[in-house]
Amino acid sequence: MRTFENLDEFAAAAGEHLGFGGWHEITQEEIGLFADATGDHQWIHLDLEKAAAGPFGAPVAHGYLTLSLIPLLVRDVYTVRGLRMAVNYGLNKVRFPTPVVVGSRVRAGVELVEVTAAAQGSQSVARVTVEIDGNPKPACVAETVTLLIA
């Protein structure tokens, strides 16, 4: 865990890779719960037999499930002290280069792209790369935008 004492110290780290979070295993139960929450019950996620014979050899996680795990995957990468809150402001860009097969382990690496002044505080842009254990291609690359209020 990288700790920044304040927003100025955090902003000074722009351009740096901040580190990696811990590994998280993608389970079939997690995929099923996400399918129920979103209504996306496509067979490549839920039909174990059909998915085993399909293009990925097993069920795969929804791309949006992988994206939604970013808060979990980055929570142990860094912290900024002195903030009243940090609010998800959106995404600039998202790609899903590689499907995540059930049973895979994923983790996130974070690069701080920039920190700029915003009307309510500061705004950070971080490039989050979700890696799959043993796979050279990432599962997801996303630029997250966060409003930081001190």
TrEMBL record:
Residues 10-129 form the MaoC-like domain. It comes from the Bacteria. SUPFAM superfamilies: Thioesterase/thiol ester dehydrase-isomerase. InterPro entries: HotDog_dom_sf, MaoC-like_dom, NodN-like. Pfam families: MaoC_dehydratas. PANTHER family: MAOC-LIKE DEHYDRATASE DOMAIN-CONTAINING PROTEIN. Belongs to the enoyl-CoA hydratase/isomerase family. This is MaoC family dehydratase. It comes from Saccharothrix lopnurensis.
